[in-house]
Design brief:
Length: 215
């Protein structure tokens, strides 16, 4: 089962990916992890990616595609895989199709976890992280016992820069502009399965697994 997982920042993709990995025993392949792994292994593509990353630039599509191709040829992807964070653009989706056909593989479904902007903002701007141990709290869903203090180590809780409202709205708007063409692209192929990400985590997981069981 070869899947693509789409969802805005804060939609809960990571949680759903874990549930899919657990149930079907297929690896979650995130571009960030893959890039870091290729850099750590010192592969040719990893070295190229490192040059761009060190310069603070986006790694070009052809390098990312090459790294994805290498990863999809590893043994643990024989039963399938979940692509998380890739493709991000139409050009990447088209390159992915070409590369998969060279490998004799295809995408079975694109799971799109939908969450409206206001809900995403509410989820992310209420997150607080511990400066000391990194534990994460949520002022609405998982508040600390004592305001501003970590339950685990007593460290100070703070709002990370990328969790601030302006940043979250920017990220959501970038996500929308990049992803809507992808939904259209895969929708025409009949692959998109929308899941309502505003439900409880367990309900969303049940909906996702129901879709995948039917494939």
């Amino acid at each position: 089962m070869n899947l693509i997982l789409l969802g805005a920042p804060g939609a809960g993709k990571g949680t759903q990916a874990k549930a899919i990995v657990e149930k079907y025993g297929i690896p979650q392949i995130s571009t960030g992890d893959m890039l870091r792994e290729a850099v750590a292994k010192g592969t040719e593509l990893g070295k190229k990616a490192k040059e761009y990353m060190d310069a603070g630039k986006l790694v070009p599509d052809e390098v990312v595609i090459g790294i994805v191709k290498d990863r999809l040829q590893e043994k643990d992807t024989e039963k399938g895989f979940i692509l998380d964070g890739f493709p991000r653009t139409l050009a990447q989706a088209e390159a992915l199709d070409k590369m998969l056909s060279e490998l004799g593989k295809n995408i079975d479904a694109v799971v799109n976890v939908t969450v409206p902007e206001e809900e995403v903002v509410k989820r992310i701007v209420n997150r607080r992280s511990c400066k000391n141990c990194g534990a994460v709290y949520h002022l609405i869903y998982k508040p600390p016992k004592e305001e501003g203090k970590c339950d685990k180590c007593g460290g100070e809780l703070y709002l990370r820069d990328d969790d601030k409202e302006e940043t979250v709205r920017d990220r959501y708007s970038v996500y929308r502009s990049q992803t809507e063409p992808l939904i259209d692209y895969y929708g025409k192929k009949g692959l998109v399965k929308d899941v309502d990400g505003t439900k409880s985590i367990d309900e969303v997981t049940a909906d996702v697994l129901k879709i995948l069981d039917a494939l």
